[in-house]
Design a protein that fits this description.
It is a single chain. The chain is an alpha+beta fold. About 35% of the residues lie in helices and about 20% in strands. Helix 5 packs antiparallel against helix 16. The radius of gyration is 33 Å and the shape is globular.
Amino acid sequence: MSGEQDSVAGARTKKDGAGADNGAGHRRLVIVESPTKARKIAPYLGGGYVVESSVGHIRDLPRGAADVPAQYKGESWARLGVDVDNGFKALYVVTPDKKSKVTELKSLLKDVDELYLATDPDREGEAIAWHLLETLKPKVPVRRMVFHEVTEQAIRAAAASTRELDADLVDAQETRRILDRLYGYEVSPVLWKKVMPKLSAGRVQSVATRIVVERERERMRFTSASYWDVSATMDAGEEASPRTFSARMVAVDGARLATGRDFGSDGQLKASNNEIRVLAEADARRLADALKQRDFKVASVEEKPYTRKPYAPFMTSTLQQEAGRKMRFTSERTMRIAQKLYENGYITYMRTDSTTLSESAISAARSQATQLYGKEYVSPSPRQYTRKVKNAQEAHEAIRPSGEVFRTPGQVAGELDTDEFRLYEMIWQRTIASQMADAKGTTMSVRIVGNATSGEECTFAASGRTITFAGFLKAYVEAVDTETGGEADDKQSRLPVLEKDQALTASDLNPDGHTTSPPARYSEPSLVSKLEELGIGRPSTYASIIKTIQDRGYVWKKGSALVPSWVAFAVIGLMERHFERLVDYDFTAGMEDELDRIANGDEQRAQWLSKFYFGGDMGVDGSIGRLGGLKKLVEGSVEDIDAREINSIPLFSDENGHTVVVRVGRYGPYLEREVDGNSQRANLPEDLPPDELTQEIAEKLFATPQEGRSLGIDPVSGHEIVAKEGRFGPYVTEVLPEVEIPEDATAAQKKAAKAKAPKPRTGSLFKSMDIETITLDDALKLLSLPRVVGKDPESGDEITAQNGRYGPYLKKGTDSRSLSTEDQLFSITLEESLKIYAEPKQRGRSATAKPPLKELGEDPVSKKPMVVKDGRFGPYVTDGEYNATLRKGDEIESLTAERASELLAEKRAKGPAPKRKAPARKPASTTAKTVKAGTSKTAKTAAAKSTGTKTAAKRTTATKAK
């Protein structure tokens, strides 16, 4: 069992290591987390070093009772794994899958003279080093080796300049681990009792879930407003360039026309302003007609210089956001790729909240920008980007290409796969651009007036932007969030040269109707941005936070949007009413700051945990400590929680005034309303977002009650046949008589009797069927499946036609073959089936081509057309090379090209399925060369798809080759 981290003093580690300068025969064991990193740095250190990986963490708090050592099983705190009555000492155990690794490391320690702990340079890496120290108990001197990039120069410098283990960083990380254990083990059981079994609460995950739930609540409360204006195409005459340009009506008789920003979420104007006019459709059409063939003139022209400074180099949060917007990567995928790039020596450490660059990095970026774009495109003086960093331990440097001379994308194209290349290229471009000159241009705002035949003076507005010097935009343009109406920094909209009182005509006038939209759901990039804005979590945690809330079932994805589940509504409702401080944004951010104080050595770990758990003088007014501590808060609230109230989410009142609510039951959510004193219930489809549950949809669901719509009696079995809405879509089933169980039967006997009872036949509705119109005959045909088509005369195997969740198919033993249509299930003959089985089994592109369900345009990576097809396992998107099944929430009708590209990219990242190796016919070296050449060619093809920046990079490579 571990004690206080105070023991992690310098006495256990040494600093000022001599590194590679030590005498011959002096052997050192260097431990890193990753096998990849171990393989990479071993050649840099030479023969006097043995480099091995721990493969991540080697020990943790017990995951369950089975992990608790026998001597502690009787302790009251054993369930927690933290002795709360004795200085919050943690009980750490070596995880079962790491026991052999620990044995291996201990064995290697016997033959060395020193131990170098070379784990990652952040708080978590420091904690891993401490755990290794505590577990291995080395008898040789120990040094902490720290580096931020995997290059020979950086590795040798780190080995030559070691330091002591940082006890404050270890304390900070272990405090977080213990705090999360206390939080989860105290609060989660409340959710099990009051909402649903197996739910979990977390210090940061619950707050992140609340952010997503609150946005969905905003969307549910939102009332759309409509407003109109008139768009015009103005003509400035033959000599103007461009001759025509767009303008929009902004005022009538001096009264400004309302736009979307003037309306609140209730659909009403935000303030009663007599100077704002909401133009109705009839007025817009009347004015458009009344302005035709009328003369216009320029009322004013305002021209201003435009300057845009470069973006700061990437830190963790901005890298995740930009990769999400530009390449549709999830945060987890971005960090996984960045980790590989870092460990293989391509970029600096990827967990940082610093935007600063070292002097050598600035010099490298400026030199490369000059070489590629010319001196005039480089900033006159070096640019340094500073920001206030809350946790200095993660503030070493921005994410940039590694080394003192950056390799261009063209130089690394043959070494990286597609996703690695794209991320490296983006990091390289952003770093180079950060040292380039400002983009310059001009903006122009024009007001145009014209008098309608009805007498009103109508004012139109037009604006333009012209970039006269691209500056850094020549190297990199940041992606924008189109959901919020963003506009790219390099977008230009030219207007002709105009002067005041210049005459114009309108070649086209159109009345335009608009409606306000609810706030966009969070995507992964925008949620990361929100977490960062609120100060919740830290760079190293964003990806895991987003993954956790999806894995826990609190949030699911519809396209790229994050949608909260109804269970999330219930959990957050409970937390807000009874543990409000635990999901308060300011409180959570303030707690992060307090934990950073521990990292900086300004707060003592055990005292802080004691105040948080048992209560004490800590934090701001109303903090958990000042409210009596977490333990008291939870114990005092459980009995006050009304489970039915918490699990009831009111939606709206129906036409008869009945309140419609969503109930979250132990087996999932459902709809309910009271009608004449009776409860009416309906199942809720899993893929229906909360804000799309309208009154119309609710009535349709209520029309098919939970017990199902009775279709009649099966004339053969005598059982009632019903049609139901299920979690995975509509289906038909039979109602079997209840199993008679003796009243005095034990629980085990009752369970056994139910298990032995016959199961009802079920059948999913065909895509062409509707639950409201399906007949008894249709249902009986569905329930007749699987249908025995006949026996294979050669093998004697029975051939059946079956309707699976992913479509109709034939089955013979373990051999399945897809059918083209659902009707074939009832019509296919044995002869036709044998003919299908006589043909080679076709997969993927060689299969019988079916017309695509939807065409989506070109994939940005493969440059091949993307289409949606209907496959054995449901609809999928394909570019002819990779197939990616549509996920829950992806609908064919609303599937965008961006989402399709994201699904293909995720599939591509996983690589092809492993194949059985054929007997080698060529020497191994030849095979290796062939693979390497193929990889290089693929990567270079990907590199060639590129922007001007990449072309420039390739030219640089070619020049050097000469």
